[in-house]
Model the fold of this input.
Amino acid sequence: MNQLLAGQPLAQQLAYDKYAAALYSLVLQIVGDTDTANNIIVNLFSYLFTHVQEFQSSGYNTLFSWLYRKARELAVNHSLSITSNSSQATSLTRQNLGAIQRFASTLNEAEQLVFKLSYFNGLPLSAIAKLMGKEEKEIDLILKSAMINFRKYISTHWI
Done:
């Protein structure tokens, strides 16, 4: 991490080699276009190399989790900027968001809070654990339960 903070090219290359493929896969799933996904990954790593010090105070335990959140943020923002130009796409996005909110309302109180903090706010498990005064492992189990319920909900309401 110290070498990355110092801007060492080798450290930057190692970070890219270690994380780019997994992050590219995430971004591609969101944007659905290889050229756009490539551009987002370039922007993501440019951001990392110029703002790496933000990771240290972010509350994330791993560089990958911080990059994952930022990659998701960039991909979603890109997708929303495209869909905002189309009223039909905007309507579909709102319908999907409404469906996700309806799903969240079916969860028990703890699952609902953890799901919303994770999905809508993009908080890492460590931050959610601190907010709720619980162990991170317990938050992980709560989120896993919510995601199992989410898969069931999708299979009965969207497919």
Observations:
- The chain is about 80% helix and 0% strand.
